[in-house]
Each structure stands twice: as structure tokens, then as C-alpha cells.
Amino acid sequence: FFFKLPSDSFKYLGWCDIEEHDVRGNQLHCPRVREGPSEEELFFRREERTLKKRKPVTDTEKWEKRLQENWENCAELNLSFQDLGDLYQVENFKRILRRLIRVEKLWLVENSLTDLSAIRLPRCRELNVNKNHFRSFKQLPKIPQIQHLSLAENNITTLSGISDFRHTPLESLILKRNPCEFQERYRQLVFSSLPNLKMLDGIPKLPEDCSPPDIRFFYKMCTIL
């Protein structure tokens, strides 16, 4: 026989939905923010009885939940591996990102993200969006104070739009395992677009990264007198 564990009734609940605790969002480094499956999905899974019927949520309860989430006061947050398989999951995720007005370090690894261009993270200094589906620098959030940006294992094909970071304090950039990494004179082009960049893909800026493309090409030519 199959017996459900006592915790089974909580498996689709977010931390905010569990009663009788006062833990706030800024006290959690890796909170689960993905919402539970829809009633339709639970029906097809034959799990429609897993969740108890919820009472209508009042405006007071909505406000209390917002205060408990307290995303506005998060300074360091890991929202990786959230399994955002449905559109409503993605929209809820973006709702949370819009509230991160004070976050300085943020990890969003492997969330199948494609476009966060409408999101602004005004104080973010360190952002890790490895293993997502970004195709362009234009799809990244607005991060005017960024210092360390990691974009490994996305699908960025060209360096178009990278110059938008020229006026930021960006010091370190990771683009490993993106198609743009195989572009001719890749490192040279990145550093020419970002003069203040100090490190690319874990390797410090080298003298040869600063030489103009035409000079390097000229050295390869043979002069016949």
C-alpha cells in the first residue's frame, strides 16, 4: 500500500502559504517562489485532492503576504532552479524581480529565462544568469551598478548590445559556452567595447587583448620588395 507522508500536503505550498510563522523574504537566501500547479494540472495528475480548498483571500491577507515577502529589503538572494514551466509561473517570477529594488547579489541560474528587459535592478552589483535562454544582451535586465556579470551557457550569438555596459562599473564578465565565444577576435572585441573591463571568462585583461584588429592583421601579412 502507498501511504502519504505527513509533509505531502505541503509539497505545493510556498513558504508564505504555510501558517503560523513570521519568516520574511529577506531572511531566506534560497526561497522557493514557484507557485504550485494549477487546479487543471492537478486534475490531470489525479492529485486534485492534494491541496485543501482555500478560502477567498481578503485584501488584508494580500497585504500581510506582501509584507511577509518583503522583497524590497533583500540584499542577497538566490532564485535559481525554480522550474518555471508555465506562463503564470514566469509572470509571478517577474513580479518578484520588480520588487528587488535593493538587491545587490542575485542568482537566477537555470530558470529558462528568455527576456528580462522590462526589469530594473538599480543596486545589483553581482548577477548570475547562467544556463538560461538569453539570445542577446538587450534581453538582460537594466543593471546600472553591475560589477560582476555571469552569462555562461546561454545562447548569445553576437556581441551586439554589449556596449550598453560601457557606462557601468562592470569589471568581470563571463560568456563561456555561448556561440559568441567563437567569434573571430572575440576577446579583443569585448575589451574594445568595454574599456573598463578587467576580466573576461576568468582570465585577466592581457596586452594582446588591447591591440587594434588591423594591426594584428598587418603583422600576419608578408611584404614583398
UniProtKB/TrEMBL annotation:
Gene3D superfamilies: Ribonuclease Inhibitor (3.80.10.10). It comes from Onychorhynchus coronatus. SUPFAM superfamilies: L domain-like. The keyword Zinc-finger does not apply. PROSITE patterns: LRR (PS51450). This is TILB protein. PANTHER family: GENE 29133-RELATED, LEUCINE RICH REPEAT PROTEIN. Keywords: Leucine-rich repeat, Repeat. InterPro entries: Leu-rich_rpt, LRR_dom_sf.
